[in-house]
Design brief:
heterodimer, A: about 800 residues, alpha+beta, 7-stranded mixed sheet, 36 strands, about 20% helix, B: about 80 residues, mainly alpha, elongated, TMEM258/Ost5 (chain B), Dolichyl-diphosphooligosaccharide-protein glycosyltransferase subunit OST5 (chain B), transmembrane helix (chain B)
């Protein structure tokens, strides 16, 4: 089905890559030995370093003056290569007009001569000679704090150290500069004091704020360093997210914005000196004492957030609490990890929730617009006092299947949003296949390195086109698939796979068996047939035309149009069935003693076997007399039933015989009942009537294998004539009866049999009655002996010693 | 025109789903029930007329019903 839909609906699929503003960050290559041209001078520089969180946040305000004779617009800020990649959210604005937005910034590769990498700030307008501009530069430095001591006890205080240069790294000469450090507390046990850099004490302390400088550095060469280290108490976890994967899934059908975030988290604080003590931890938790472990993460959720979940590698984490939003207030998801995360410990988990899409998605203005606008937070994340640093963030915006012409924009405000410039966010569009998708959902992926929770409030806007056909793809796919199943069910049902019709083209195994069992005199067999019999292989189609014994033409249909008892004219005038007539071999025994073994007792099964053995002889003799009557397998019916009793049409035997007649009717051929002996068939007139009447259109004949002496011979009897006689529609002296001697004989036998049976069972008769019966019997005998229509055998033709035909 | 301005300009046309979240289950269930009934009726008497009169609506109801039902189950497609 997927192939079908992909083929059919794929024709309507727009290109996924129709997005126009995707970015791939690149870095400028600088020549070896590169030095920034000395066209600027830093008149005054103030660096504010905030150490209140678990990462370093620096804000530098610098007054820059163009000392060149030409207008300049590229300002270089150097960092050593090992620090450069840990700087996140680098942003530069005009300090006096921050609302004008951030300046464009380029990143460079490391310069091989001094190992520095540069941020190249492109001023929006070239700075005229001797003009000044005040730059507000802000950035974070990740993983720059190291715990000292590196290992502590479970309830001990934690201390972090931070090393930096008293002189701000700069590519230009700086007249005056100072650095303000803001500590989380006043507990700063160790810090570097400078000597000779300035008059008076350095640093100057004021509460939790330490100020190094101001220094007069007009004579200090750019790049000069004066190392300073501070060590301060930070009994909080240093939460570092190695990787955050955030998925925003837009569903038009569900009217839902599903958010899922996967965190790989680590505490970069001091590791435990001893083994973890659950008792001590419980005690600390009860006291709510400060700890260097992550005890709980508070995650504010937007109003309207529902169905939150919190899963880690083991499964659902039940130690969480969700306080849903009330009205427009934010909800709060309080996550308590499965275990406290001490320094050096890792924890990975997954959280997710749903929002109504209406709060985040709008249809772009315009009549019948297929364009949509999505506005959502780029990063949310837990809100912790100690802050969180993200080494790598991958945000996937999963748009509906078929969305195209994707564009995105990161919102900028008057203040820093904690993100790098848009050209340093790696964005690409791909396809994501998930539930019920055929082509896959258009996915915009945004990748950012080195972020902090300063970016929590950042938002992005995505526009995309999504037509009605795109929207209907899912239901129409299922519709098409199911309709295909229905049509296939109908089409397959039309195919006729019945065995019956296929047999017209073949030969039944039973016929092959009959061919093999009853061999024929070699002189009577056509040349091809013995070869086939000996090889035992299947007969090829071109010899499937049935074969008849020579000199024994197939008897004409019993209905010779001389009477009205078999009115089927249509059947006989149409094409004869190539399979030949339907032939049923029938033998009957009156009871279980009706056999040739006087002292034997038989069960019903043995009697049926006995009758079948008689029919084998009958079948062979019939084959000699009439040849092979087509390819249709012969039927055999053995009956144990007294004479003169009716075989009901609804009995098993009656139905079997009727089925044979039905088959003959369906095949437009004749039906032949081959009877073993005069008594082979039931002698009940009503039975004959019940069989013949519903099948007046089917030629029916009895081949009675009986004796008028020895050997036995076959009498061909027209069944319908017999029935017509008994129903008094034909008189005994009718030419049709008189001319058909075998039929006439059969009728007479049936007429006399009841009398003979009666005489057998009622021997106490008067002499007159016995005489009458004897005469009657003799009359029949007379017929046998003096049938004038029968040509008497010529004695001279009989060769003495020659085998006589028959058994 | 920045994309944020496009967002602001579209403030009058928030996205309204075809079926609200609260109604997804009932709509999906009824459509699937209809699909089951008509599909079964078609299965009892497979004919070309049956495809048009029963199979077509069954497939259609099944397509939309399945989408709404999977949404109601929490898998927002």
């Amino acid at each position: 089905m997927r192939f079908f839909t992909a083929t059919v609906l794929g024709l309507l699929a727009p290109s996924l890559c129709a997005a126009t503003n995707l970015t791939t960050p690149s870095r400028l290559d600088l020549p070896s030995g590169f030095k920034p041209p000395q066209v600027f001078k830093n008149t005054n520089l103030v660096r504010n370093t905030n150490l209140e969180k678990s990462y370093v946040r620096e804000t530098v305000n610098v007054v820059v003056e163009n000392v060149d004779k030409k207008p300049q617009n590229d300002y270089y800020i150097p960092f050593s290569a090992e620090v450069f990649d840990r700087i996140g959210g680098f942003e530069v604005r005009d300090k006096k007009a921050p609302e004008k937005g951030r300046f464009n910034v380029d990143y460079t590769e490391a310069v091989s001569s001094d190992g520095n990498q540069y941020f190249v700030i492109h001023l929006p307008e070239p700075l005229a000679p001797k003009s000044q501009v005040t730059l507000g530069i802000s950035y974070s430095v990740l993983s720059s704090l190291s715990p000292l001591p590196a290992t502590i006890g479970q309830a001990d205080k934690q201390y972090l150290t931070y090393s930096f240069s008293a002189y701000m790294p700069s590519a230009y000469t700086t007249d005056t500069q100072k650095t303000k450090l803001k500590f989380p507390s006043t507990n700063v046990p160790d810090y570097t004091t400078t000597d000779g850099l300035k008059s008076g004490s350095d640093p100057e302390r004021k509460g939790a704020t330490y100020t190094y400088g101001p220094y007069n550095t007009a004579q200090v060469a750019p790049g000069t360093e004066h190392p300073i280290t501070v060590r301060y108490e930070f009994t909080k976890p240093v939460i570092t997210v190695n990787l955050l994967e955030r998925d925003l899934e837009v569903s038009h059908w569900g009217g839902n914005l599903a958010t899922e975030e996967r965190y790989w988290l680590r505490n970069n604080g001091s590791e435990l000196t001893n083994q973890f003590s659950r008792v001590e931890w419980t005690f600390t938790s009860y006291q709510k004492a400060p700890t260097s472990a992550v005890r709980e993460l508070a995650y504010p959720l937007l109003p309207g957030s529902v169905d939150p979940y919190f899963i880690d590698d083991i499964g659902n984490v039940s130690t969480s609490r969700y306080r849903p939003s009330v009205g427009r207030s934010a909800g709060s998801l309080e996550l308590k990890p499965r275990y406290p995360i001490f320094g050096g410990w890792n924890y990975s988990f997954r959280i997710g929730w749903n929002n109504n899409l209406a709060s985040f998605l709008r249809r772009a203005a315009g009549v019948d617009s297929d364009s949509y606008v999505l506005k959502a937070p780029l990063i949310e994340g837990p809100k912790m006092a100690e802050g969180i640093q993200y080494e790598r963030v991958i945000v996937r915006v999963v748009l509906p299947e078929g969305a195209h012409n994707v564009r995105f924009e990161i919102l900028e405000g008057a203040n820093s949003n904690g993100l790098p410039g848009a050209n340093h966010i790696h964005a690409h569009v791909s396809s994501l296949k998930t539930y019920m998708d055929t082509l896959g959902r258009t996915t915009l992926t945004l990748e950012v390195d080195s972020l902090t929770d300063e970016a929590r409030d950042s938002k992005f806007v995505v526009t995309y086109d999504h037509s009605m056909i795109d929207a209907l793809r899912k239901p129409l796919t299922i519709f098409a698939g199911l309709l295909t199943v229905f049509v296939a069910a109908w089409g397959i049902g039309k195919i006729d796979v019945s065995i019956k019709k296929r047999r017209v083209q073949g030969i039944s195994p039973i016929d092959l068996y009959v061919y093999n069992v009853f061999s024929f005199p070699a002189s009577n067999v056509p040349s091809k047939i013995p070869v086939i019999f000996k090889s035992g292989s299947l007969l090829p189609l071109n010899v499937l035309a049935y074969w008849q014994s020579p000199n024994k033409p197939r008897p004409p249909p019993v209905d010779d149009n001389t009477t009205q008892d078999s009115p089927s004219k249509v059947n006989l005038s149409s094409t004869r069935n190539p399979l030949g007539p339907v032939v049923v071999f029938i033998a009957r025994a009156s009871n279980l003693t009706d056999h040739s073994y006087p002292k034997a007792t038989m069960t019903a099964g043995q009697m049926h076997a006995y009758l079948r053995s008689l029919l084998v002889i009958t079948l062979a003799e019939h084959r000699k007399r009439f040849g092979v009557l087509g390819l249709r397998p012969h039927k055999i019916q053995t009956i144990i039933q007294p004479a003169q009793t009716r075989i009901s049409a609804v009995s098993r035997i009656g139905k079997y015989l009727a089925m044979a007649l039905e088959e003959a009717r369906a095949s437009k051929t004749e039906c032949i009942f081959v009877l073993h002996g005069w008594d082979g068939w039931t002698t009940d007139k009503m039975t004959i009537a019940e069989l013949c009447e519903p099948f007046r259109d089917v030629p029916l004949s009895f081949h009675v294998y009986a004796n008028r002496g020895t050997p036995r011979e076959f009498f061909e009897v027209n069944g319908h004539k017999v029935n017509a006689y008994f129903r008094h529609t034909v008189a005994a002296d009718d030419p049709a009866i008189v001319g058909d001697r075998s039929t006439a004989l059969f009728i007479r036998m049936l007429e006399v049999l009841p009398t003979l049976e009666y005489a057998k069972y009622y021997p106490v008769l008067s002499a007159a009655e016995r005489d009458t019966l004897a005469k009657y019997d003799k009359r029949i005998s007379g017929i046998y002996e003096h049938d004038e229509l029968e040509v008497p055998p010529k004695l001279e033709d009989a060769k003495p010693g020659a085998p006589r035909p028959g058994v | 025109m920045s994309l944020n301005e496009v967002w602001e300009a579209a403030s009058a046309t928030p996205f309204i789903p075809l079926i609200a979240k609260d109604s997804q289950f009932s709509v999906g269930f009824n459509l699937l029930l209809l699909a089951l009934v008509t599909g079964t009726l078609f299965g009892l008497n497979r004919s070309f007329l049956g495809i048009v009169s029963l199979g077509f609506p069954a497939a259609l109801a099944s397509g939309f019903g399945a989408v709404f039902m999977i949404c109601a189950a929490g898998v927002y497609v």
